[in-house]
Amino acid sequence: MSSKPELDWFKSSYSDSGNGESDCVEIATTPGTVHVRDSKNTDGPRLAFGPAAWSGFVAYGSAQA
């Protein structure tokens, strides 16, 4: 039995890099938490953010793009 909860994962439609590789993450939401995982390693490590931390993470990532 897996200790990881069953989540409804999704990936942005903007994630296709156009070169045949998909370097992106998938997210799933639960009340009060945004879960993040590597789309190429779905059984690998995951991150979990509360609402304020997720907002900061997205703002930081957007500024780096």
Feature tags:
single chain, 65 residues, alpha+beta, 1 helix, 3 strands, 22% helix
Describe this structure in words.
The protein has 65 residues and is an alpha+beta fold. 22% of the residues lie in helices and 25% in strands. The protein has 1 helix and 3 strands, in the order βββα. Strands 1-2-3 form a 3-stranded antiparallel beta sheet. The longest helix has 14 residues. The radius of gyration is 13 Å and the shape is globular. The termini are far apart. The model has no long low-confidence stretch (mean pLDDT 86). Pfam families: DUF397 (PF04149). It comes from Streptomyces filamentosus. InterPro entries: DUF397. This is DUF397 domain-containing protein.
Distance between the termini: 39 Å
Spatial strand arrangement across the major sheet: 1-2-3
Oligomer: single chain
**What does the largest sheet look like?**
3 strands, antiparallel
Total number of helical segments?
A: 1
H-E string: EEEH
User: Structural class of the secondary structure composition?
Assistant: alpha+beta
* Beta fraction: 15-25%
| Average pLDDT | 86
SS elements, strand count: 3
Output the radius of gyration. Answer: 13 Å
Outline of this structure?
By secondary structure, the chain is an alpha+beta fold. Helix content is about 20%, strand content about 25%.
Describe the protein's topology.
Elements: E1 25-30, E2 33-38, E3 46-49, H1 51-64
Antiparallel strand pairs: 1-2, 2-3
